[in-house]
Specification:
- This protein is about 45% helix and about 15% strand.
- It is α+β, with helices and mostly antiparallel strands.
- It has one domain: NADH Oxidase (3-Layer(aba) Sandwich), CATH 3.40.109.10.
- Bound molecules: flavin mononucleotide.
- The site of flavin mononucleotide has 9 residues, from strand 3.
């Protein structure tokens, strides 16, 4: 990965509508997305991968009135992923996580798995009843998956553009997402840049002395 290039480039606002991510690369990226870690291994996500013109058009048409300008990005992207997060955390989800960990042999010693499950329940009880931020906490996991996948895309030579400019209620309605117990958190457009419209101005970020404290 060329970190110097990554540090000096703008995110891609204009995709080349004529280029598609090769299937093998896409599958590698999705395999990576599937592997991204989450706190307590809670895995609160479902991902909608829009690969067809129809899928992308449905999303572009349902971003909400204020966010029409993001439509073109989605239509010209090779693929766009809708990253959704569970709207709540029912016991059945936790049961599913633990059952999969057991099936995958996450802990060789069953006693360790049991200890892990009880520690996870304690932690979730804190989030539920003390910090009262379960949904916010789950969405933070979604953003971690987003960021890591942006880096993986760079490694594969794919441009990845996160989009928060959309109305989640509208996107949820268009793809019947609430019916699954999830809600839309963020979008990720993937593809290749339109070479005629790549920004070449400097990237603007705060200076290091404002950002870092060394102790
Ligand atoms: C989580 C996230 C969501 C973003 N959503 C949008 C968006 O909806 N539309 C858009 O044009 N840019 C969006 N951006 C791009 C930012 O505005 C952009 O990265 C920032 O202004 C810095 O510009 P640069 O990437 O060109 O340096 C988003 C960036 C991030 C990290």
């Amino acid at each position: 990965m060329n970190l110097d290039r990554l540090m000096s480039k703008h995110l891609t606002r204009y995709f080349d509508g004529g280029r598609t991510i090769p299937e093998e690369k896409l599958q590698q990226l999705l395999k990576f997305l599937r592997s991204t870690p989450s706190s307590t291994n809670i895995q609160p996500n479902h991902f909608y991968v829009l690969a067809t013109p129809e899928g992308k058009a449905r999303l572009a048409a349902n971003l909400g009135e204020r966010f029409q300008d993001n439509g073109e990005k989605i239509l010209n992207a090779s693929h766009t992923v809708i990253l959704t997060t569970r709207a709540d955390l029912p016991e059945s989800h936790l049961d599913g996580v633990f059952a999969k960990e057991r099936a995958d042999g996450r802990f060789a010693d069953p006693a360790k798995q049991e200890l892990w499950e009880s520690m996870t329940r304690d932690f979730l009880s804190l989030r539920n009843y003390q910090y009262k931020d379960v949904y916010h906490w789950m969405e933070k996991q979604t953003y971690l998956a987003l960021g890591l996948t942006m880096m993986a895309a760079a490694e594969l030579g794919i441009e990845a553009m996160p989009l928060e400019g959309f109305d989640p209620a509208s996107v949820d309605r268009a793809f019947k997402i609430r019916e699954t117990g999830h809600t839309t958190t963020v979008l990720l457009a993937l593809g290749y840049p339109d070479p005629a419209k790549v920004y070449s101005s400097p990237v603007s970020r705060f200076d290091s002395d404002q950002l870092f404290t060394f102790l």
